[in-house]
Amino acid sequence: MSSRLLLDLRPLTESPAFARLWVGSILGGLGGQLTITAVMLHMYELTASTFAVSMIAVAGLLPMILAGLYGGMLADWFDRRAVALSAATVTWISTALLAVLAWTGLVDVGWLYALSIVNSAANSIVSATKMAITPRLVGDRLIPAAAALNGITVGVMVMVGPALGGVLVALFGYPVTYTLDVVLMLSLFLGLWTLPRLRPEGESVRPGLASLADGWRFLRRAPNIRLQFLLDIVAMTFGNPLALFPAVGAVVLGGGEITTGLLVAANAVGAFASSLFSGRISAYRHHGLGIGRAIQVFGAVTAVFGLVLTAAWLSPGEASAGRPHVALIVAAMACLACAGAADNISSIYRQTMLQSAVPDAIRGRLQGVFIVVVTGGPRLGALYAGGFATIAATWFGESGSAWLPPLLGGLLVVAITTAILRAFPRFRGYDAENPTL
């Protein structure tokens, strides 16, 4: 197989600091996915409500937005290493508290919501700061390769974490699952602690309204950056059925917690595979068109996933933890793997565009907005999927309510993305050899 098809490993071999941060991010992110999966299952166990599960994401939306924006301002003023370490410490403490509450039997719905909010806010700061750091560690020429390696990170942690989380919860319970996250996250501290000091280059603005206004003025002059944000929000709002997975595993496809973990992991398998064979993807120059086409594919396979759930609803026999629809579970996983691959390809192009075209002095604030979009979109998607499924349950029953949100949402993603690509030829013509805002 031609080496040009495979993942470019030069960021790891040429930048030891990036390599340490990359390994720490994989292990820390793996633990974080254990907790995310466990919290979803824990909430569903306590409430038996898909809407309550979706509200975990929705409740953290505003704090996450504020933290992402303010964290970006901090990253454009202070040493970025110190900012990331401070936010990671908050995440670790909140996860440790969740583990303690689980061991003592004191976890309730309120604690699950509260600590999920703290985690989402702190993680948005960590993620924005790490992304602002990356170009300084690898250099401009290796930004696409580093973005693909970050896709591997997401792929591994989401591929292994949710499936392992489902198994751990089923076999050992919630306290063990939360505690393992506490241990794994220590590796992230090692990756951050060994970084050099990384103060922003160029003229910076002190955190506050003036810094926020300066970032907003820059974004107004950057239509290509704005459009990639908009396209991602569309994809994640209407094409992210994650909040449905506990109910899908319980009453639609069957298999319980194991199926829930497998569905989440399938998405990551696609992301992992697309990064592993990202040589040609990273070399493609027309990033605007690449983003649009990837999101169109993402919407199409999401709609097909909705059709798979429709088939499960219409099939004879009631699904349960002991009676899974094995063939339909495999079909659903294939759809989600394709969606994960398409989303990751879009992410590689969006990260490269943002990190190449934006000056270092304002990169933290734009990465903050990027993180708000990337993590806020799925929360809007959770509200869309959970709310729509709750309404649909009054028409079709709980087992028949899950197919409609992904089917309609996937078609909306395709239609809206197609309209945007036709309306903005400058975005379609974006050339990575000559980055423009």
TrEMBL record:
<keyword id="KW-1003">Cell membrane</keyword>
<dbReference type="GO" id="GO:0005886">
    <property type="term" value="C:plasma membrane"/>
</dbReference>
<feature type="transmembrane region" description="Helical">
    <location>
        <begin position="82"/>
        <end position="104"/>
    </location>
</feature>
<feature type="transmembrane region" description="Helical">
    <location>
        <begin position="110"/>
        <end position="133"/>
    </location>
</feature>
<feature type="transmembrane region" description="Helical">
    <location>
        <begin position="291"/>
        <end position="314"/>
    </location>
</feature>
<feature type="transmembrane region" description="Helical">
    <location>
        <begin position="21"/>
        <end position="44"/>
    </location>
</feature>
<feature type="transmembrane region" description="Helical">
    <location>
        <begin position="258"/>
        <end position="279"/>
    </location>
</feature>
<keyword id="KW-0472">Membrane</keyword>
<keyword id="KW-0812">Transmembrane</keyword>
<feature type="transmembrane region" description="Helical">
    <location>
        <begin position="178"/>
        <end position="196"/>
    </location>
</feature>
<feature type="transmembrane region" description="Helical">
    <location>
        <begin position="369"/>
        <end position="396"/>
    </location>
</feature>
<feature type="transmembrane region" description="Helical">
    <location>
        <begin position="402"/>
        <end position="421"/>
    </location>
</feature>
<feature type="transmembrane region" description="Helical">
    <location>
        <begin position="145"/>
        <end position="172"/>
    </location>
</feature>
<dbReference type="InterPro" id="IPR036259">
    <property type="entry name" value="MFS_trans_sf"/>
</dbReference>
<dbReference type="InterPro" id="IPR010290">
    <property type="entry name" value="TM_effector"/>
</dbReference>
<keyword id="KW-0813">Transport</keyword>
<dbReference type="Pfam" id="PF05977">
    <property type="entry name" value="MFS_3"/>
</dbReference>
<feature type="transmembrane region" description="Helical">
    <location>
        <begin position="326"/>
        <end position="349"/>
    </location>
</feature>
<feature type="transmembrane region" description="Helical">
    <location>
        <begin position="50"/>
        <end position="70"/>
    </location>
</feature>
<feature type="transmembrane region" description="Helical">
    <location>
        <begin position="229"/>
        <end position="252"/>
    </location>
</feature>
<protein>
    <submittedName>
        <fullName>MFS transporter</fullName>
    </submittedName>
</protein>
<keyword id="KW-1133">Transmembrane helix</keyword>
